[in-house]
Amino acid sequence: MPVERFIDTNVLLYAYDRNAGRKREIALETIEEGWTRPGCLAISVQVLQEFYVNFIRSGQTHKTTCQVIEDLSQWPVVDNSLERLGQGLEICQRYKTSLWDGMILSAAKFSGASTLLTEDLNHGQDYNGVQVINPF
């Protein structure tokens, strides 16, 4: 499943936020690449779960949210597993991240991505072979 980049939840959410201005434009460009270059972007089940919770909170319906998730599920998706959890725990201990960020980094590494697109971690930092890029 090697991919180029892994996308965190915030990138997806900005793509659907009509009030996000330039962040929305950047997120839409990124997501468009996922459709025009199949296999270049990956997400995880955790990202889809977080997307669901936050998209519903933004006022979207269950039906609309599930349709977006179904669409995004056509991309390479890393499943949650005990192995991902174990690696996530190691990452959060080593780099002093939250467990959730450790899980994202674990999934990104597992996907083969060399880059994680997120605004939640230190821009430019390398986490065991996965470099964080804040696209915003």
Give a written overview of the molecule.
It is a single chain. The chain is an alpha/beta fold. It has one domain (5-133): Rossmann fold (3-Layer(aba) Sandwich), CATH 3.40.50. It contains six helices and six strands; from the N terminus they run E-H-H-E-H-H-E-H-H-E-E-E. The chain has helices spanning 9-15, 22-36, 45-57, 62-72, 82-95, 99-111; strands at 5-7, 41-44, 77-78, 115-117, 126-127, 130-133. It has a six-stranded mixed sheet, with helices on both faces. The mean pLDDT is 96.
Shape: globular
The strand count comes to: 6
Please state the CA-atom Rg, rounded to the nearest Å.
14 Å
> What is the name of the CATH topology?
Rossmann fold
Question: Would you summarize the structure shown here?
Answer:
With 136 residues, the protein is of the alpha/beta class. 54% of the residues lie in helices and 13% in strands. β5 and β6 form a beta hairpin.
Note the main attributes of this structure.
136 residues, 6 strands, alpha/beta, Rossmann fold, six-stranded mixed sheet
How is the secondary structure organized here?
Elements lengths: L4 E3 L1 H7 L6 H15 L4 E4 H13 L4 H11 L4 E2 L3 H14 L3 H13 L3 E3 L8 E2 L2 E4 L3
Helix pairs in contact: 1-2, 1-3, 3-4, 5-6
